[in-house]
């Protein structure tokens, strides 16, 4: 099994921050060589410069070969120590211009070694180099401070920075984990609420609707008047459709799915004319005016218009008994203009019927219209009536609209 090779540099930024100090310290050592004394041993006057520059340039290889660079630095430090003790002038001038007794690049190598070597190895390396740099067997105020600054201090600062980075990463991970747990708890609470609502709707609303359908069916069978049987059949059919839709809604709530746009089925074709006929059948005089080609708008827009007309006519039946209504649909290349208005109520509304709504019908219509990019308007009309209107775009860029509207791509 082969081990993965270390990259030369973790990133371009790391490469830059290795090359810059390597070149800077190499130039500094050249300056020391030019301005100060030179080595006078058997290896020649440039022996100390070659040793220092070799250590300086090895910094660029630290991430790829950390052990080799650490070994070279330690060997150079011992060579400088041996030269000072046993062969003055061999690798260090007899009167050096710098007070450091280890390679000048030592502080940078130790600071970066914290990132590539394990803690124990770095501590051993720093301890050995600190011993060589401070030379405690010959204490000197001109050697010990600079030795500690070159060895112990860079390692301590680097360990502090790395520990702080790990702490910040740990806190960030903990915060992310807490946020995820909060989202899970909120989602669980929403799921529990959906299940509770589904149970309430199933136990209460479905039960009442079922009784209504049964009573209407029984009335249609037992009544001798054709008009009553027809009305009872209408009630039974609408109740059965309501039960089907309620059953679907209960299933959605229990499964935790999102309520998306519904595809209009053959039982609910989305034709406003059908809504007008239903309104007329229950005794509300309703006029319908259609101008233009309905094919000019996408299915999503047509469905929004259908829901607006449906809600507006429902409100007329609830809150304006005895009034007449007028529905206007104007299709044009720019979209669809919808208007539903009614005259003033002829008599007070039935309290039970008027109070059966949630009070959020118009707000829901406004939200639905604005969701497709339209403008919604609702308010009292002259003469005591009420008007609901919307200006809808021709096309809404949804996947459903693309599939259901062949001309959508060209708009």
Commentary on this structure:
With 411 residues, the chain is α+β, with helices and mostly antiparallel strands. It has three domains: 12-150, no CATH class; 186-255; 272-410, Heat Shock Protein 90, CATH 3.30.565. Helices cover 59% and strands 9% of the residues. It has 13 helices and five strands. It has helices at 12-35, 47-57, 66-86, 106-116, 119-134, 144-150, 152-222, 226-255, 272-281, 299-319, 351-354, 361-371, 399-404; strands at residues 286-291, 325-332, 335-342, 375-380, 386-393. Strands 1-2-3-5-4 form a five-stranded mixed beta sheet, with helices on one face. Strand 2 (325-332) and strand 3 form a beta hairpin. Helix 3 runs parallel beside helix 5 and helix 9 (272-281) packs parallel to helix 10 (299-319). The longest helix is centred in the middle third of the chain and has 71 residues, at 152-222. The chain starts with 11 loop residues before the first helix and ends in a 7-residue tail after the last helix. 26% of the residues are buried. Residues 257-269 and 398-411 have low confidence and may be disordered.
Summarize, please.
Helix content is 59%, strand content 9%. It is of the alpha+beta class.
Summarize the helix and strand pattern as letters.
Answer: HHHHHHHHHEHEEHHEEH
Low-confidence stretches: 257-269, 398-411
Fraction in beta strands: 5-15%
Radius of gyration: 43 Å
Number of strands: 5
Mean pLDDT value: 82
